[in-house]
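Title: Comparing notes on inverse folding

I've been comparing how different people in this forum approach sequence design from structure. To keep things fair, I'm posting one structure and asking everyone to reply with a full sequence. Here's the target:
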């Protein structure tokens, strides 16, 4: 039964790759990198970097093409088998004068093919009827139970299928000399030629209208129709179901009955003479049904002739001349029928099933009916449309069709809906949806979607970049790493890309690429396209499943999958264990299957053998490709040379065997032939259609044909002396070519041996750096493949060059005294060990060792000086200068620097604090403390830092006291201020606030002195005013405040510190 849209389950998605710009620069290298992953799914998608957007280079206004017509339900293999079955059974009934109308059961078309197949699987009509298992048949056809559908199916089977099956089985035929279409000529399948793949000319008789008529009821017959047809008037039967053979309800192919048209060839000529017996002269034997048009010739002459013979059945000679082919008797002559196809005679009661009476009109015997029904079907292909489109007109047509079909705007139709609807349509025998597909459009003639450097059009700078890109499908096949670059011919679809313009539901069917190569496709613009892929390891399984499910198609077209005209539902394949993956490609998506690389050469040879068995034309000669690459082995990379050598060895061995067999047949004549200069159609084997190159067998008397050496018995019937060998190379030249390939392929082994000896020091001698560089250059120039050994050589050279650069840096540091990063002593020792372990000799290692020796000598002197401190203190600057010249870091140099820092810091502290040194400021003391924090600790340093910190604390405290006194918040007696100043003078630090307080005290004393002098001289007393003076102390205070007590306590502690210092 056909699947509904909800029944289709999309296959899993294939992997998607996103190369970086660096990876994208090497197309074939990147494809080879992802191939192990992509081959597992059979298809993958490569999404280019976002900035890679080639312009669409087709000239839209001048681009015109004629598409192909695709009827969707004929694409699917199982649906096509059903339709072919309906064609055959319809032809069976039409030959006998009845129209086939397929009945409806439970509101759907009865699947006659499935019904016939299930009946056979269940044991046949008799067994099912005997066991009353028609209900099971209905169940297997997915009809509901309990509605007596089994009986209805039995009725339809008996009326429509059973007579046809009986004819097919030959149960009603006599053992006689028949003329079925089973000769070798008819059996031989002639495949499509390569230029016409996927395309056939329209049939002279359109079968699609007939199919459509079967699915729709005929209009009711009018009274006039009934009056004109006596049988219809008699039976009043119309619609589906067979009629009695020969009792057609309407004359078939009325359009062929034209006045003055050709009459049927007479089956017999009857001459009547007066009073003399009839003499029957049989005409020449006639081959039945040379074409479909012979089936329905004008019926009037034939009917008159045959009916005249039947009316004359009383004649004795007539009775003696004609006998029933089944019972071999001539009695019951009134029930003897004459076949209008082969002139055989049958009793109506001997036929199976028997006829109740002699039919009128054209009647065919069972033998002729079977021969016509078993005629091999024509090779299926797509018809060419009659209308030519531009891209604009085709797009408008496609958009209109899609929007009308889905009843919504084009851009709103989901891809998933289109996918489900497509697989529903291809599985339907009722709905005949037709679409158009512009396929295999030659890009050289119509233009490529990519820019091309062909001097016909000026390209911009951006277009030139895309025209030269390896991802341009015009460029990729001819890249240096591609095998296809060795083929001179421009092979469309392989070296020259094809263009495809599709619409909704258009399809590119399941197929294996020519020569089993890989394929790559780029979607320039438009709506998404869904691809389905099967990995190569499952290709044979896919073909086996399709042959198992639809053997009828492969019987008539053995190379069906090479014709690109057949689909099978992915769910059906997956249910039989075939792994299927899919990917919907959006605009600017790159779809990739893989590319024909050297690893495919064995597969190419196997493909040629497969083509031989199918008698299918080759796209190019595999032998020619191998020999052309073998002729220039120096141009091949190593992997390709090795692969070609293996293929060439097999070819040479096979050619020796074939030529030896030729000699044993007595063929000794031979001529050299440059087969590559001949067109392919002039060097194809007449038997297997393969393209010859190394050799072929020809005949002097039959110059138009030749065969490959595998079919020397199929050339002609001429004697062997007339036959001769045409060869391209002698058996001495082929081994010479093979030897050159071997040298090229084994050059890597020779080179690898040299590298291995050099790197592993097998002979105990270190190579110079120049020798290793020469080996690396040889690998690059000869295109040796990247290998682990080559990587080791590159790593060794890289490491040696780094060592040399580092060694030169050490020397430059010593000579120029530049400030560069320095090695430690341990790193220098490891560096020397590294240079010693390298398999190449480097003279710079002597300079590095001398640096190490000087460093060791310096260490001895530095350790001695450090042990004799402080007596050796004057030696430290000189030692540090020598350490700077060494160019490396030694541990003793660090210790020397620490000692020098300590000495410099302690000396500065001493100069700052010890009298009669000039008093330092608070900032100086803070700086000394900060520097002391970075000086390496020692007892002297710790003591000096402690004294500095205590002195700084005291100085800051006295500064704070002076600051408070200067603020005049509290009055202080001059005596206390004098005590503060006196104590602060003992601190060896410059204190600004103490100095300011001292200056204020001096000014106050001068003022007091002035006041005392005034008081002594003045005797007058003034009553009208009061003089108020604000001073920072109390002039006549007799008491001591709490503040003064605290001051005294502080002074006592400071005195203790100062006394300690004194």
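Reply #1:
Here's my take.
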């Amino acid at each position: 039964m056909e699947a509904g849209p909800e029944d289709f389950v999309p296959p899993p998605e294939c992997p998607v790759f996103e190369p970086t710009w660096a990876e994208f620069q090497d197309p074939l290298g990147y494809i080879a990198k992802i191939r192990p992953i992509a081959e597992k799914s059979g298809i993958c998608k490569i999404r280019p970097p976002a900035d890679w957007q080639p312009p669409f280079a087709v000239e839209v206004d001048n681009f015109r093409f004629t598409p192909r017509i695709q009827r969707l339900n004929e694409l699917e293999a199982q649906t096509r088998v059903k339709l072919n079955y309906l064609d055959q059974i319809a032809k069976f009934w039409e030959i006998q004068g009845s129209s086939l109308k397929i009945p409806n059961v439970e509101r759907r078309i009865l699947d006659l093919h499935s019904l016939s197949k299930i009946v056979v699987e269940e044991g046949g009509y008799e067994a099912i009827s005997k066991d009353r298992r028609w209900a099971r048949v209905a169940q297997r056809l997915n009809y509901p139970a309990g509605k007596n559908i089994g009986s209805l199916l039995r009725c339809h089977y008996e009326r429509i299928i059973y007579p046809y099956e009986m004819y097919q089985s030959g149960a009603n035929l006599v053992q006689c000399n028949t003329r079925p279409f089973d000769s070798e000529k008819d059996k031989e399948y002639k495949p499509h030629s390569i230029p016409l793949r996927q395309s056939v000319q329209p049939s002279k008789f359109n079968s699609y209208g007939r199919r459509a008529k079967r699915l729709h009821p005929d209009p009711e017959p009018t009274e006039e129709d009934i009056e004109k047809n006596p049988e219809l008037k008699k039976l009043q039967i119309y619609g589906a179901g067979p009629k009695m053979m020969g009792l057609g309800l309407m004359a078939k192919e009325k359009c062929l009955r034209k006045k003055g048209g050709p009459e049927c060839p007479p089956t017999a000529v009857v001459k009547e003479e007066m009073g003399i017996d009839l003499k029957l002269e049989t005409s020449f034997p006639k081959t039945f049904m040379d074409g479909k048009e012979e089936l329905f010739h004008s019926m009037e002459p034939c009917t008159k002739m045959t009916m005249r013979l039947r009316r004359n059945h009383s004649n004795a000679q007539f009775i003696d001349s004609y006998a029933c082919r089944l019972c071999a008797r001539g009695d019951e002559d009134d029930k003897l029928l004459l076949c209008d196809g082969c002139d055989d005679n049958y009793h109506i009661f001997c036929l199976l099933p028997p006829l109740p009476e002699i039919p009128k009109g054209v009647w065919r015997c069972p033998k002729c009916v079977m021969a016509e029904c078993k005629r091999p079907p024509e090779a299926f292909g797509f018809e060419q449309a009659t209308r030519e489109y531009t891209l604009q007109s085709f797009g408008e047509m496609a958009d209109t069709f899609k929007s009308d079909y889905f009843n919504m705007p084009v851009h709103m139709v989901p891809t998933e809906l289109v996918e489900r609807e497509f697989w529903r349509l291809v599985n339907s025998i009722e709905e005949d949806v037709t679409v158009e597909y512009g396929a295999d459009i030659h890009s050289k003639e119509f233009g490529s979607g990519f820019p091309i450097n062909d001097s016909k059009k000026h390209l911009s700078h951006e277009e030139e970049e895309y025209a030269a890109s390896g991802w341009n499908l015009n460029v990729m096949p001819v890249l240096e790493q591609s095998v296809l670059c060795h083929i001179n011919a421009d092979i469309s679809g392989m070296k020259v890309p094809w263009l495809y313009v599709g619409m909704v539901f258009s399809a590119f069917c399941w197929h294996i690429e020519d020569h089993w190569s890989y394929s790559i496709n780029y979607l320039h613009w438009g709506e998404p396209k869904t691809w389905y892929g099967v990995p190569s390891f499952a290709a044979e399984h896919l073909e086996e499943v399709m042959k198992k499910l639809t053997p009828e198609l492969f019987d008539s077209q053995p190379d069906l999958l090479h014709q690109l005209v057949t689909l099978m539902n992915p769910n059906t394949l997956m249910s039989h264990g075939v792994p299927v993956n899919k990917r919907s490609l959006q605009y600017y998506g790159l779809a990739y299957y893989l590319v024909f690389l050297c690893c495919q050469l064995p597969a190419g040879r196997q493909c040629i053998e497969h083509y031989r068995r199918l008698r299918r034309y080759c796209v190019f000669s595999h032998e020619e490709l191998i020999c052309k690459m073998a002729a220039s082995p120096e141009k091949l990379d190593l992997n390709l040379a090795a692969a070609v050598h293996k293929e060439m060895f097999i070819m040479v061995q096979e050619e020796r065997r074939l030529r030896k067999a030729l000699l044993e047949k007595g063929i000794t004549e031979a001529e050299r032939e440059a087969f590559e200069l001949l067109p392919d159609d002039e060097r194809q084997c007449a038997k297997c259609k393969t393209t010859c190159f190394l050799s072929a067998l020809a005949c002097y008397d039959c110059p138009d044909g030749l065969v490959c050496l595998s079919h020397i018995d199929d050339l002609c019937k001429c004697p062997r002396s007339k036959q001769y060998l045409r060869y391209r190379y002698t058996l001495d030249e082929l081994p010479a070519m093979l030897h050159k390939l071997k040298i090229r392929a084994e050059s890597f082994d020779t080179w690898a041996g040299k590298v291995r000896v050099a790197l592993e020091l097998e002979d105990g001698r270190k190579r110079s750096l120049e020798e290793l560089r020469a080996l690396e250059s040889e690998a690059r120039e000869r295109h040796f493949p990247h290998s682990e050994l080559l990587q080791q050589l590159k790593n060794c050279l890289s490491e040696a060059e780094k060592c040399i650069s580092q060694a030169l840096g050490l020397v430059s540091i010593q000579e120029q005294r530049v400030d560069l990063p320095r090695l430690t002593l341990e790193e220098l020792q490891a560096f020397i060990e590294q240079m010693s372990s390298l398999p190449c000799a480097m003279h710079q290692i002597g300079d590095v060792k001398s640096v190490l020796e000087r460093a060791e000598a310096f260490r001895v002197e530095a350790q001695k000086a450090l042990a004799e401190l402080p007596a050796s203190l004057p030696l430290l600057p000189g030692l540090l200068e020598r350490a700077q010249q060494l160019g490396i870091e030694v541990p003793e140099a660090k210790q020397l620097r620490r000692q020098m820092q300590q000495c410099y810091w302690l000396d500065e502290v001493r100069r700052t604090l010890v009298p009669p040194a000039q008093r330092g400021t608070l900032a100086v003391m803070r700086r000394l403390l900060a520097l002391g924090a970075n000086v390496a600790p020692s007892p002297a340093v710790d003591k000096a830092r402690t004294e500095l910190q205590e002195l700084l604390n005291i100085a800051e405290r006295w500064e704070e006291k002076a600051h408070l006194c200067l603020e005049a918040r509290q009055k202080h007696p001059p005596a206390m201020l004098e005590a503060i100043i006196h104590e602060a003078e003992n601190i060896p630090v410059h204190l600004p606030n103490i100095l300011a307080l001292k200056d204020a005290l001096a000014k106050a004393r001068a003022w007091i002195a002035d006041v005392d002098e005034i008081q002594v001289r003045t005797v007058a007393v003034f009553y009208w005013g009061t003089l108020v003076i604000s001073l920072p102390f109390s002039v006549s205070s007799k008491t001591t405040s709490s503040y003064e007590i605290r001051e005294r306590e502080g002074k006592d502690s400071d005195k203790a510190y100062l006394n300690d210092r004194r």
